[in-house]
Every structure is written in C-alpha cells, then in structure tokens.
Amino acid sequence: MKYNTLGKSDLQISEIAFGCMSLGENTLENTFLVHRALEKGINFFDTADLYNHGDNEVQLGRALKGKRDKAVIATKVGNQWRADKSGWDWNPSKTYILGSVEESLRRLDTDYIDLYQLHGGMMEDPIDETIAAFEQLQQEGKIRYYGISSIRPNVIREYIKRSNIVSVMMQYSLLDRRPEESCLELLKSNNIGVLARGGVAKGLLAGKHPEPYLNYDAAAVAKAALAVANISGKEHTLAQTALRFVLHQPAIAAAVVGIRTQNQLEEAAGVFKSAVLTPEEINGLQQSIPPNFYDQHR
User: Fold this and answer.
1) Which residue, 21, 34, 46, is CA-closest to 254?
2) Which residue from 236, 211, 215 is spatially nearest to 293, judged by alpha carbons?
3) Nearest CA among 150, 155, 156, 116 for reference residue 136
4) What tens digit of pLDDT does each residue of 165-175 get?
5) Are 35 and 63 in contact (CB under 8 A)?
6) Which residues on adjacent β-strands are paired with residue 148?
7) Total domains, the chain
8) Residue 13's pLDDT is what?
C-alpha cells in the first residue's frame, strides 16, 4: 500500500481509503471487513453522521475497538436529521457543529476525530462561523484536522482563502473530470489534499450496463467503459483501471472506495499490485470521451 501525507496535516493516509457508507448493520461482517482492510494496509476510513442515521459511525467504532491507534478516522457534519427521520436539512451553524461532534465521538467510541469534514457547503452559509466551530474543536483536541466535502469551485475557493482546511473531498473519475479545470491544480498549489470519491462512477466503469451519467448519454458512457476495458485484463481489473486513472493526478491523496463485500475490498486493496498506467494509456482514456465542466457554482 502507498501512503500520502494529507495536505498540510501530519496524517499519513493509505492511497485507497475505505468508504464506509456501504457498510450494513451486521457488526461481525463489518468488523471482519475493517480488520481485513487494516491487514491489507488500508488505514483511512471515511464515514458521516448522516449515513444510516448515525449507525454507520457506530458500526465503524465497534469494528475499530482495540485498533483505534491503527486507523485514521474521517467523518462529516452539517446535515441535520429531522425529528421524524423523514429527511435532513442543511445546518452549518457553529452551535450545531459543536453539538454534533459530541454525538459522533460517542458513536465512534473515540476521544478524537482525525479529520472532521463539512458535509457540503454553499456561498450563502455563515462561512466564518462554520470555520470558527472547526477551529475551536481543533483547539480543544476533539478533532485533529478539518476539511470540506464539496464539488463547488466557488465554495472551495472561499475555504482556501478563509480557513485552515487540509482536505477537500470531491467526485472525480473518467466520467467526471470537472475538477481538472481548476480545482485540482488550485488545491495542489495550496497544499490541500484531495479525497476523490466516485472513481468507478457508480459501477459504470466497472462492468455495469451503460446508462446516462451527468451530461453524458449511455453511448458516451459505453465508449469510456470500453476504453477502460481495452487496457484491463491480467494487469488490472476494470475497477482497478478506473481507480488507477483517478490516482494518476498528483493532487489526489486518496481514492475513497465504497466497500461492502470482501471481494470489493480485495479488489480495491489490489490496486497496488496492478501496474501503473502508462502516459499513453492515460491519454487513451482521456481521449475516449470529451471532458465535462462545472456549469454552476463556478
């Protein structure tokens, strides 16, 4: 496994991160997967208080019991469940964040969170108030570092200017190259690590039947998937090729991969047994489909 320093932090994170959102409610199965991930060298686990009404954090905390020192835990805040659990509302207020961290710490059964992330963000938010909450939590030792999860370039720029974020989580894949336009280079130049989610594009780059995705129609998706297939085989599975494409970007500290089965875990962890894509292979993938761009929140 390869490890990268996450931005300006001292966190050393595995280049393949365990996306916990897909974990179920079977504690024994989850514990097996998490322990197996640690054995494979995966030390970075990403969850959120939103996932399964907080139970996802509970499951991760149980799985890491006795192994907390071997893991880097990231979770997220900002989406407040309604009392009747019918949905959630956006709440980036300082009061909500300071209260929510206590619940996440309890559910995760830990004294500190390595990376606490704002789970979204809008220009209309009280951004300085939000930042003040994260800074206070860092000073209190309840979190080690903080970041944001956002695909909005205008919001990302504000946090770069006004905060001490060490990371930005965003979607990036062969079928979503929007971050290439400006975000990746901007974040790299400011020494802020990128956590890339959605690397296999909901499975469309890993064998799933083609269907429309973002601004691409099914035919365009099929063409990109074929380009992935053409350089896969003995050296890479389809998913490994798609993830290798993501990781070729220097700005990206880790690819966050949703894992719910042992096969998915073994495949993700096996990325580093597969050959690095050559410049010619990267170019071939890039030429298979026109890049897309953000058309909002620029």
Assistant:
1) 46
2) 215
3) 116
4) 999 999 999 99
5) yes
6) 118, 168
7) 1
8) 98
The pair of structure tokens assigned to 203 is: 């499975």
Q: Which of 206, 274, 267, 194 is nearest to 234 (CA)?
A: 274
> Is residue 223 in a domain?
no
Nearest to 81 by CA among 54, 56, 104: 54
pTM here is 0.95
Virtual torsion, Cα 151, 91, 45, 184, nearest 10 deg: 20
> Which tens digits make up the pLDDT trace of 231-273?
998 778 999 999 999 999 999 999 999 999 999 999 999 998 7
What residues make up the domain containing 164?
3-204+247-275
pLDDT at 83: 85
Residue (of 214, 228, 221, 219) closest to 293 by Cα position: 214
What's the rounded Cα separation, in Å, for the pair 87 and 50? 10
**What pLDDT score does 295 carry?**
86
Helical H runs in the chain? 27-39, 55-63, 94-108, 127-139, 153-162, 183-189, 218-230, 238-247, 262-269, 279-287
CB 270 within 8 A of CB 241: no
In the numeric block, which tokens belong to residue 35? Answer: 């322990």
Cα–Cα distance measured from residue 233 to residue 216, given in angstroms and rounded to the nearest whole number = 26
Are 7 and 18 in contact, with CB atoms under 8 Å apart? no
**Domain for residue 212, yes or no?**
no
Catalytic residues: 51
Q: What is the dihedral of CA 272, 273, 274, 279, to 10 degrees?
A: 50
Give the CATH number for residue 51: 3.20.20.100
Question: What does each C-alpha distance from 225 to 81, 233, 266 come to in angstroms?
Answer: 37, 13, 22
